[in-house]
Amino acid sequence: METWTPNPRAKPFIPRQQRSWYLTWKYRLTQRRSLRRFCQAGAVLFLFVTVVVNIKLILDTRRVADEDAADQEYEDVVPNMETPRRPASGRKVLDIEVYSSRSKVYVAVDGTTVLEDDVREQGRGVHVIVLNQATGHVMAKRIFDTYSPHEDEAMILFLNMVTRGRILIFTVKDEGTFHLKDAAKNLLKSLGSQAALGLSWRDMWTLVVKKGGQVYGEKHSKSPALSTWGDPVLLKTEVQLTAAEEAECHWADTELNRRRKLFCSKVEGYGSICSCKDPAPIEFNPDPLPSNNVFNVPVAVIAGNRPNYLYRMLRSLLSAHGVNPQVITVFIDGYYEEPMDVVELFGLKGVQHTPISIKNARVSQHYKASLTATFNLHPDAGFAVVLEEDLDISVDFFSFLSQTIHLLDQDDSLYCISAWNDQGYEHTAEDPALLYRVESMPGLGWVLKKSIYKDELEPKWPTPEKLWDWDMWMRMPEQRKGRECIIPDVSRSYHFGIIGLNMNGYFHEVYFKKHKFNTIPNVQLRNVESLRKDAYEAEIQKLLREAELLDHSRNPCEDSFVPDTDGKTYIMFIKMETELDTSTWTELAKCLHVWDLDVRGYHRGLWRLFRKRNHILVIAVPISPYSVKKPAALVPIHLEPPPKEEGAPVEQL
Amino acid sequence: MPRVNRTFVFVLLLASSCAFLLFQLYYYRNYVSKEPGLHLLDPAGHVMSSQVQWQNLKKFLALAQFFRLPLFLADSAALALLSQDALRQRDRAMHEPHCSFLCAGRPITSFALPASQWQLSPGFLLAAEQKGFQLLEVRGRDPRLASLDTLSGEEIPLHFLFRLHGYIIHVVLLYERSGGYLWHGALRLKATADPTFAPFRLLDYGRHAGAYDRPELLLTVVDGLDVRVPRNISRFLVQRQEARFLECRYHDARSFLQLYPDDSSAAAVEFRRKAKVLLRLAAQTLGRLDIPFWISSGTCLGWYRQCGVISYSRDVDIGIFISDFRPQITTAFRDAGMSLKHQFGQVEDSLELSFLGEDVKLDIFFFYRDGDVVWNGGTQAKSGRKFKYVFPSFSLCWAELLEVKVRVPCETLDYVMANYGGTWSVPVKSWDWKSSPSNVIENGVWPVAEWAGLIQVY
């Protein structure tokens, strides 16, 4: 056996070396003595290696443990605050309760009240709640006061924007049918409502439905007589949740779409942003400006809880030529989720502010915190652009600022640059390239100089207990110190907000709806250097010299007061004995349909505006230094307010 | 039979030790081999590893260049080597790329990045991850919003750690602050983060927040790689040594101000404005002379207690170690438009200078070390009486007051307590500097004959 040789023919396909090893081992193992010896040696060897490795291991793990201990101090002490999520395998059915009555409505989802309104004289109309069909989260809450006109149109618009498959909950408080027209009723019917067409005066009604799907429940109680309401109705129903995948769209997996997906899973009512097939863009890539002097000027957007406004505002802002999204910060007053969702949708930076005080003082404190934070966040910036959430921003907003911002730096007689002309209405503004100096502070999209804020305004900003408007305060002589603002003839912002602290639909219709708004890109501003203090006086003198005197015997409120010419400059004189003698200007402003609530938009007693494409200079005699241009014999126009009783004073903006 | 038993025991032993060994090797690989720089089983690994580290850096810097990130080298070890022998570096740069500076025997290389340049980060981070880097992003509260207790923004990125093949590249973000300096945050891991991601103890930055002057940068070639470095490396390294930054206690300050609202009268507003101008002027003047100073007494209390100045304190107080005294101080302040109001004591004892600027007094107290305490002196002009104020010894940190970067004692509470006692948090309007401080000691009287030199009032 010792001389055994392999037989090559027996296993020809096994490699030679392997086979011989195998056989050698087999042979050796059959020898009991060598096996024993081998085992002994092997065991000893392995034991030895084990011991060595063990010691090494102990040393190393101790060292690592030491480092771990040293690193402990790096660990955040704040415990993980995230609450455990409800297990996905939990309930798949939502219990929904909806109540409708004259004085109270409420909606409860799985025992949680998501809507409760029992405040008197408030919340009249149809309340609509949108739930996510996969999670049951509230995605939108709206009230449509369909007792009043046009609200049903807003409701149609909203319902059409809601994605198919969402769960809609309707309930009526007080009265919701007076101006609920057939179009809206038909839409409700098409959603699956049985009672919609029969809804009438002071009926109570609730409906839970899946958009484009089944009706989960509907209750309706008719009002027995004109003077009484229908009996309260309480609808209890169950809604089967669907799988998360069905509630989502399948957009390409990009950074943008990830933001979009997150947004669309949380909120509703933003139209085609969440459309599966053809979603509206959330990145705009407007043209850059050839030479942008305001690229690094921080932009502060002051916002409250009006997410739809904020959405519209940010869209226009991010579409303006030369915008730099990196320097935009949205300051939200209050810890509202939805405005923050909008901010994140656009990939911008959002900061939330804990509300302090009430009403105007709350706004004022929010402004202060936002301005301070803006200059903290951008220590190198010499200016800040201040915007509000209810403004449309003109496409050439940054171009306008880029061409003028150096004046704010070089001319100490300037207080701000504003995109807003208080007197710039459709019929009184003409020239997008024209700029004015005015003594009032228009706000509504403006540039603030850091040194003015830091050295003058911030230290004495009104404290929370003072219920002042920040802008009224800024206009006070103690703050303005005779300085002026530069404004364009045609505004570079548009105030679209209808709901707001000092705002309502009527007020907006009268004073803001007809405001002129520039839509022309890259307007080259004319004679920017002539806006400096002294140059501007020379410019005015030139205008006064070439201006033709209007016929002061005519009634200035009549159309024929200004001749039907084109491109001419006219001059008129009105009576204004003192700063407080505003009656003539106010009456004139009323018949011109410009801002008449207080005296705004003048420069040393001179207003400049357009009528019938002619430039009109209105000079207040005798307080304006330009009164010297008045022919001695001419009697300035004097208008008295009509003697009729004034209505309730309209709140000032 | 016993023989069979013995064999059986051996086999059993063999099998179990085999299993045990395998388990340990597996465990060892998992737990220890992740630690960089450990090449237990490969003693010749060092040369290899520095090659790996160099490759990492090359890859990373190329990526940063592609995304136009103006990173600069902030690694203390690498910069120290660079500053030691700039000449040798030039020689070596000629040779093949060899990681003698950037690797420096450490598994970590630190870079800094101005945060304003940190634009559209996802692109860079995604690209780095695609290149194989593992990423740890450390975020924290935005200190620029913290001064306004009512604001809360998103957390901002403070540190990035990129790990590849066991080597770490640490990128610390430098934020521009209102006081005209750069700030980086402390590195604090969240509970969910992996505490073994990197040897955090070895990091150059992150133990504390830090404040730096904006360094001038220089593009150079180090170990065959294009790297930006601070132009004045040694200055940067000195700054790094004493960069620790203390954020003001804004939250406590707010509670204090709710209890004792700030005076908002025109006079108080005016004083705060003047104090700010004066403090900035002092910081500039002493900065030019390279003399470190800290805010002391009432000014320090104002910072610590209310993150501002105490409007009724009527002066600005700063401290300087007597070892940093330079006779040029007086002329420098005069050149800055301030007038010397009085000078008490001498360099050897109780020196005190007072300047007047913007009609607010700037008091400069010189501090003397004495064993484990430090003290400064006071002198009553009319009587020549001397006083001594004793403080526990302290180190200096950076802080921001009135948008000026100033130093404060790091052990601020001890310092304030020594001066104002346990009731420092209660405002006291009638303050007598000779008796009110809790650390004041009577220190004799100046000899009348020397008054002319020791008590100079202008």
Structural write-up:
The complex is a heterodimer of chains A (653) and B (458). In chain A, 29% of the residues lie in helices and 21% in strands. Chain A is of the alpha+beta class. In chain A, helix 5 packs antiparallel against helix 7 and helix 6 (307-319) packs parallel to helix 7. In chain B, helix 3 packs antiparallel against helix 7, helix 9 packs across helix 11 (328-335) and helix 10 (297-306) packs across helix 12 (412-420). Chains A and B meet through helix 2, strand 12 and helix 8 of A and helix 1, strand 4 and helix 9 of B. Chain A: The chain crosses the membrane at residues 38-59. Chain A: Keywords: Coiled coil, Disulfide bond, Glycosyltransferase, Golgi apparatus, Lectin, Manganese, Membrane, Metal-binding, Phosphoprotein, Signal-anchor, Transferase, Transmembrane, Transmembrane helix. Chain A: Its cofactor is Mn(2+). Chain A: Interacts with DAG1 (via O-linked mannose moiety). Interacts (via transmembrane domain) with FKTN; the interaction is direct and is required for normal location in Golgi membranes.
Summarize this structure as a short list of keywords or feature phrases.
heterodimer; A: 653 residues; alpha+beta; Spore Coat Polysaccharide Biosynthesis Protein SpsA, Chain A; 2,3-Dihydroxybiphenyl 1,2-Dioxygenase, domain 1; 3 domains; 8-stranded mixed sheet; 5-stranded antiparallel sheet; disordered C terminus; B: 458 residues; Beta Polymerase, domain 2; 2 domains; 9-stranded mixed sheet; 7-stranded mixed sheet; 13 helices; 34% helix; 28% strand; elongated
Secondary structure blueprint with pairings:
The complex is a heterodimer of chains A (653) and B (458).
Chain A: H1 16-30, H2 32-71, E1 93-100, E2 105-109, E3 112-117, E4 125-131, E5 138-144, H3 151-161, E6 167-173, H4 182-191, E7 204-210, E8 215-221, E9 233-240, H5 255-266, E10 299-303, H6 307-319, E11 328-333, H7 337-345, E12 349-353, H8 359-377, E13 383-388, E14 391-393, H9 397-410, E15 414-418, E16 435-438, E17 446-449, H10 450-457, H11 470-475, H12 477-480, E18 484-488, E19 493-495, H13 505-511, H14 533-546, E20 548-549, E21 569-576, H15 583-592, E22 602-603, E23 606-611, E24 614-622
Parallel strand pairs in A: 10-11, 10-13, 11-12, 15-18, 20-21, 21-24
Antiparallel strand pairs in A: 1-2, 1-9, 2-3, 4-5, 4-6, 6-7, 7-8, 13-17, 14-19, 15-17, 16-18, 22-23, 23-24
Helix pairs in contact in A: 5-7, 6-7
Chain B: H1 2-31, H2 45-66, E1 72-73, H3 76-84, H4 86-94, E2 108-114, H5 121-130, E3 134-140, H6 143-146, E4 151-153, E5 156-164, E6 167-176, E7 182-184, E8 210-212, E9 217-222, E10 225-230, H7 233-241, H8 250-259, H9 266-289, E11 294-295, H10 297-306, E12 315-321, H11 328-335, E13 339-346, E14 349-357, E15 360-370, E16 373-379, E17 385-392, E18 396-401, E19 404-409, H12 412-420, E20 440-445, H13 451-454, E21 455-457
Parallel strand pairs in B: 2-6, 12-15
Antiparallel strand pairs in B: 1-2, 3-5, 5-6, 6-7, 7-8, 9-10, 11-12, 13-14, 13-21, 14-15, 15-16, 16-17, 17-20, 18-19
Helix pairs in contact in B: 3-7, 9-11, 10-12
